[in-house]
Write a structure and sequence with these properties.
The complex is a heterotrimer. By secondary structure, chain A is mainly alpha-helical. Chain A has eleven helices and two strands. Chain A has a two-stranded antiparallel sheet. In chain A, α9 packs across α10 (241-258). By secondary structure, chain B is of the alpha/beta class. Chain B has two domains: 42-160 and 296-372, Rossmann fold (3-Layer(aba) Sandwich); 163-291, Response regulator (Rossmann fold, 3-Layer(aba) Sandwich), CATH 3.40.50. Chain B contains 13 helices and 16 strands. The longest helix of chain B has 24 residues, at 12-35. Chain C has helices at residues 13-36, 41-66, 74-90, 95-117, 122-142, 169-192, 194-204, 206-211, 216-242, 252-265, 271-290, 294-308, 312-328; strands at 159-161, 164-165, 338-340. The longest helix of chain C has 27 residues, at 216-242. Chain C has a single domain, classed as Orthogonal Bundle (ABC transporter involved in vitamin B12 uptake, BtuC), CATH 1.10.3470. Chain C contains 13 helices and three strands; from the N terminus they run αααααββααααααααβ. In chain C, 71% of the residues lie in helices and 2% in strands. Classes of the chains: A mainly alpha, B alpha/beta, C mainly alpha. At the B-C interface, β1, α1, α3 and α4 of B face α2, α11, α13 and β3 of C. β1 (2-4) of chain B pairs antiparallel with β3 of chain C, so a sheet runs across the interface.
Chain lengths: 293, 405, 343
């Protein structure tokens, strides 16, 4: 009983905090793939840019809350411009999957080096806006992490509502399902695509800001989440929001709890192994594709 | 589907091939220019990470070397010859370091080489030096093996190695917290584990007890899964060998969760450095480690060095800058003693050599090419490294385990 | 753009062979010049470029010819390097034994890796190959017996023949050049065989291939194992050149660079990646001496190629060259129409 209260329970709760972070990352990725059919290898870099934008805004004298509000808007702009100027150019090719993967891979390389150029290679600090910790049932929990969990959950719900319960979301889903038809119905499909990409990038950027006080800011921070985010998206089903959420929370729990029994170094390989098994037996993931689900 | 007749000839490719040829010939042409060199200059090659994660350390190395070269040239150079530093970026990748080192030896014809940061690069470049009959010195790498079982007759080390750092720290811990209960947390790779193991044996030799040990993956994001274990072990001291970004995360998260309250945190020399200290902020206060240099060292030489460094680089030196500054004076002393830059003569002169540095006098042990110096235990307090303990050179150095020469 | 020529599926073979001849010819000229001036550094740099050209060939076999994008090919390259280093240090300093052991090892690991990865395609394959490389390189990074994060130094020179060993800059350069030539020629020939056609068919339309009674899975697996062997043999040459191995040889940077070399050079042309490797190795070295931010330059170049020149340099040059060669032979000029897919 002691073990459950003092070892297992904190592990589960910690896993939830990490899980929310991973889900936010995976969400942007799966929306971009599900709706645009674009594999965004630069997603980690956009996450990093979000954190750096917050650093810049904080350096200019704004408070964390302003940074949190403004960063997604700036990131959306960056995402929109990237999509219109670069990604759309390879969009109509037969080899779209490969080309967008390669293109975003190249974009990622350039972005990471630009961050190093502008901000230097050393890590930077973002002060958490909420300090202190709460004690519940003998568990010690930092308030900021509780806030991140709460806000993260709200964002996830908001995204789901946006995609499935609004007409904007319906337009986006229609464009993903059948581009020609949607265009012929008068929907500006190119702009919808660009806006969707921008949205996914904004999600990554928001994660960057939220997580910066916990995980600190440095140019290669994008690589933190790449493998796990892609694994979650694949296991959950590329393009499925429900899949990203469930797979994200489930997998981080598996990692968190398994670290009690096996060496934590095997955490990522374990995830990777699960991903390989899922790909071998159920390649469309747990929940299939957004546009078609 | 479009249909197109074959008669058009794209012209772009000629231009492209032209550019490619121009680039290729430029690459070949550059070294030809380099070959027309001034024979009365002593060329020192510097292979150091100027990009990538270790760029911060590489920058300090550069500042230290530049300052020393400027000062030496102002006072007449070495044996009347001026010094010229030639930099190459090794990207903290031994494969690149080896390529660049060979370029410096073969094409730029450097007389001496320094600047490598990670141990893998130092070891690999040491081999290149052997092939080219030149000497190298490292000012940063602290793996014991470089002057231990993987020693080389062409490799010298002017900075303190891991064993010396552990000795200084273990000594401090034994005198301030006798019979401490220590919890070990390290990154799960060879360097992280061996650093923990080395300190553990030094500490246990002085009466400390082990409360627990855990190894987190390298580049681990979140250390909170380990805090339950740490709390349950109730240690009085936590020793960690994480470095760089990992330290920032560990310390910030420990302070977030209140794990470090009333516990003394100690660690390896690379754990808290001037590169990550600003990002760790207050969470680093109270951290103690063993090093060979602190800017707060109270000596006239150090004060002058810091003033000169500040004027030239607009920032304070750290131990990498200080040791890199010292290496050129080491080389100068050796060349003057040997009255030549010939490799064998200089090597002979370097063995047993004593030279002045901002940290006081250092002695180069002949048996393994490891510099001996007084070691310090330092405590971080509001971004300053205060000196809280000292160990004499002879006590810190440890045994000579090099059997290759 | 697809051109239908009489020989191979979509590649102007004559022009490519001509360009290949040009490359090897230029390499020989380079060797003669460098040998006369007694150079060491450029020979070794050139040898390194050729070794990575071998890796690029293995990537092109998968990407350009089978339609699978590998993001972890450095795994086999690095493992080949480690195996070769171990053989040379502990068993025999014979060049041939080291290569043979590396070849066998690569075939076995290629088979295992292939069985895991081949079931998927497209981005899934890319991610599995990426993940495999990450996991294995992490294991090696931690294994003390393999030198852990420092790698292993002290690899002796390999004896190739009486009087010829890998420490000789000019000699080893020619040896590696010959090996690259054999690999290239072998692959080029293979592409003309029925197996080569099967690969092309897998890339174009896998489903239809199975209707023809050919099992695409086996074809892909064979290509994967072949690519692993090529990468492994190339990797085995590295410690002979530099005398050490380190885990960085398996890191994503190496895989990523290989993919960039292939794309810039010309996917599917086989000789394009070789050109791409040579050019980009030189470019990286030159730009790296001027600025610490050379990744931006390489990255932008790569993006431009992907958007503007998806067929790569050789992919662009070859059709034009093919035309010129055809014209010079005085062939009857009837406008040949080709089908063009929307880009």
């Amino acid at each position: 009983m002691d073990w459950i209260q003092f070892v297992l329970a904190p592990q589960i709760v910690n896993g939830l905090a990490i899980g929310v972070a991973v889900v936010l990352m995976a969400l942007g990725l799966t929306i971009i793939f599900g709706l645009l059919d674009v594999i965004n290898m630069a997603h980690g870099e956009f996450y990093a840019i979000g954190a750096y934008v917050a650093v810049a805004l904080l350096g200019a004298g704004l408070t964390f809350w302003w940074a949190l509000a403004l960063t997604p808007l700036l990131m959306a702009l960056i995402g929109y411009v990237t999509e219109r100027s670069l990604i759309q150019r390879v969009f109509h090719s037969k080899d779209r999957h490969t080309l967008t993967l390669l293109l975003t891979f190249g974009i990622g390389i350039v972005l990471e080096d630009i961050l190093k150029l502008v901000f230097g290679a050393n890590p930077l600090r973002v002060e958490a806006p909420i300090s202190g910790a709460t004690e519940m049932l003998g568990l010690f929990f930092p308030n900021y992490r509780l806030f991140v969990m709460g806000l993260g959950a709200s964002i996830i719900i908001a995204v789901w509502v946006l995609v499935f319960r609004t007409s904007l979301g319906a337009m986006v889903r229609a464009a993903a399902f059948d581009r020609q038809m949607t265009a012929s119905l008068g929907v500006p499909v190119n702009r919808v695509y660009a806006a969707t990409f921008a949205f996914g990038v904004a999600l990554a950027g928001v994660s960057g800001v939220l997580l910066a006080p916990i995980y600190s800011v440095f140019p290669t921070m994008g690589r933190d989440f790449v493998l796990i985010a892609f694994s979650v998206v694949i296991i959950g089903g590329m393009g499925s929001i429900k899949g990203a959420v469930i797979a994200g929370l489930l997998l981080t729990q598996i990692q968190s709890i398994s670290s009690l029994f096996i060496s934590p170094v095997w955490g990522d390989p374990l995830l990777f192994g699960i991903m390989v098994l899922v790909l071998m037996w159920r390649p469309q993931g747990l929940f299939g594709r957004l546009g078609h689900a | 589907m479009k249909l197109k007749a074959i008669t058009t000839t794209p012209r772009i490719n000629v231009k492209r091939l032209g550019i490619a040829t121009a680039l290729a010939s430029a690459a070949l042409g550059l070294p030809v220019c380099a070959m027309a060199q001034d024979a009365s200059v002593i060329r020192i090659g510097v292979v150091t990470p100027l990009s990538g994660t270790y760029a911060g350390i590489g920058q300090q190395v550069k500042w230290g070397l530049d300052l020393a070269a400027a000062q030496l040239n102002a006072s007449g150079g070495i044996l009347g010859r001026k010094l010229e530093l030639i930099y190459e970026d090794e990207e903290a990748n031994p494969a690149v370091a080896v390529q660049k080192a060979e370029k410096l030896f073969q094409v730029s014809k450097v007389d001496f080489l320094t600047g490598t940061v990670n141990s893998g690069s130092t070891l690999a470049v040491g081999q290149v030096a052997e092939r080219n009959a030149r000497l190298i010195a490292t000012t940063v790498s602290f793996a014991d093996s470089i002057t231990g079982d993987k020693c080389s007759p062409n490799v010298f080390r002017v900075n303190a190695r891991a064993g010396m750092q552990s000795a200084a720290l273990a000594d401090w811990m034994a005198s301030t917290r006798p019979n401490a209960n220590v919890f070990y947390l390290g990154p799960d790779y060879e360097m992280g584990r061996s650093t923990v193991a080395a300190f553990k044996s030094a500490a246990e030799g002085k009466g400390a007890k082990t409360a627990g040990e855990v190894f987190a993956p390298l580049d681990n994001k979140d250390y909170s899964p380990f805090f339950g274990q740490i709390r349950a072990a109730r240690p009085t001291v936590i020793y960690t060998s994480v470095a760089g970004n990992d330290t920032v995360r560990l310390f910030n998260q420990m302070s977030e969760f209140g794990v470090s309250n009333n516990i003394q945190i100690v660690g390896a020399s690379g754990t808290v450095t001037s590169q990550n200290l600003p990002a760790i902020g207050k969470a680093a206060n109270g951290f103690v480690t063993g090093v060979g240099y602190s800017p707060l060292l109270d000596s006239p030489e150090n004060k002058k060095f810091i003033a000169d460094f500040q004027a030239a680089a607009k920032t304070q030196p750290d131990l990498y800058g200080a040791d890199s500054y010292g290496v050129l004076f080491f080389y100068k002393a050796a060349v003057e003693k040997a009255k030549s830059t010939d490799t064998d003569k200089v090597r002979e002169a370097m063995r047993g050599l004593q030279w002045a540095t901002p940290q006081g006098m250092k002695t180069m042990r002949a048996g393994d090419h490891q510099a001996m110096q007084e070691m310090y235990a330092v405590k971080v307090n509001n971004t300053q490294f205060e000196i809280v303990g000292k160990v004499a050179a002879a006590n810190a150095i440890g045994p000579d385990t090099c059997t290759k020469f | 753009m697809h051109e239908v020529t009489s020989r191979s599926l979509g590649h102007p073979a004559r022009a490519l062979h001509w360009l290949a001849g040009l490359f090897f010819g230029l390499a020989l000229v380079f060797a003669i010049v460098a040998w006369t001036v007694g150079d060491v550094f450029f020979f070794r740099l050139g040898t390194e470029a050729l070794i990575f050209a071998g890796l690029a060939l293995s990537v092109d076999l998968l990407l350009g010819r089978t339609g699978l994008l590998p993001l972890g090919q450095a795994l086999f390259f690095g493992m080949g390097a480690y195996v070769s280093a171990l053989v040379l240090k502990n068993w025999s300093s014979s060049f041939w034994i080291a290569i043979a052991v590396a070849l066998v090892f690569s075939a076995i690991t290629g088979l295992i890796g292939g069985l895991i990865a081949i079931r998927s395609k497209g981005v899934y394959f890319a991610l599995i190959s990426f993940g495999l490389a990450q996991v294995v390189s992490k294991i090696i990074f931690n294994t003390r017996e393999l030198g852990a994060s420092d790698g292993m130094i002290g690899v002796p020179v390999a004896q190739i023949a009486p009087g010829l060993e890998s420490g000789q800059p000019a000699g080893f350069f020619l040896v590696v050049l010959s090996i690259l030539f054999i690999l290239y020629a072998g692959l080029a020939y293979l592409m003309e065989t029925p197996f080569g056609r099967q690969l092309g068919a897998v890339r174009t339309n896998e489903q239809r291939l199975s209707f023809l009674g050919v099992d695409p899975w086996r074809t892909k697996l064979a290509a994967f194992v072949g690519a692993a062997c090529i990468a492994g043999v190339s990797g085995a040459l590295y410690p002979m050149l530099r005398g050490f191995v380190s885990p960085e040889l398996m890191f994503f940077q190496v895989s990523g660079n290989a993919v960039i070399n292939v794309i810039v050079g010309g996917t599917g042309t086989l000789i394009g990646p070789v050109y791409g490797s040579a050019l980009l190795t030189v470019l990286r070295s030159v730009v790296g001496s001027y600025t610490a931010h050379h990744q931006i330059v390489i990255g932008i170049l790569f993006i431009l190629v992907v958007i503007v020149l998806p067929r790569g340099l050789i992919g662009l040059a070859a059709p034009a060259l093919q035309e010129r060669l055809g014209r010079r032979e005085g062939a009857v000029r009837t406008p040949i129409l080709h089908a063009e897919h929307p880009q």
